[in-house]
Every structure is written in structure tokens, then in C-alpha cells.
Amino acid sequence: MTSYPKFVEFHEEGPREGFQIEKQSFPPAERAALIEALADSGLSQVQVGSFVSPRAVPTMADTEELFRLIKKKPGTRY
What we know:
It contains three helices and two strands, in the order E-H-H-E-H. By secondary structure, the chain is mainly α. It has one domain.
């Protein structure tokens, strides 16, 4: 018989991994709304962006602003 773990934790990487490969940049307010919805869904960890050179990854140039815009949910790591 297969034994399943008693606890599974999901770490969402979509907002960081997904948006950094896009050719166009999405406004920080739109990305913040998506991140807040993911946190509201019950995820305990959401990767929201990368602090990297804007020349290397232009779509992450506004990560600092994005972090300020997110309404942080208690119990969620960003």
C-alpha cells in the first residue's frame, strides 16, 4: 500500500518565473492583484519577483515597487 505524506506545501513561482520571461512588462498594480489573489487562495509562499539588473531582465525592473504595492497577507511568505 502506498504511504502518502501527512502534509504537502505548495510554493507558487508563477509571478516571478512567468512574468520574467514575457517580452512585454505588466503594470505592477496588475501583478500585485494577481499575487494577492494567489495568497487569498491559501498558498503559504508566493515568489513575486527578482532583484536583478534591469538590463538583464527588463520585466523585473519594477520589483521594488511591486513589493510595496502588495497587500501582505499574514501567514504568507513573499
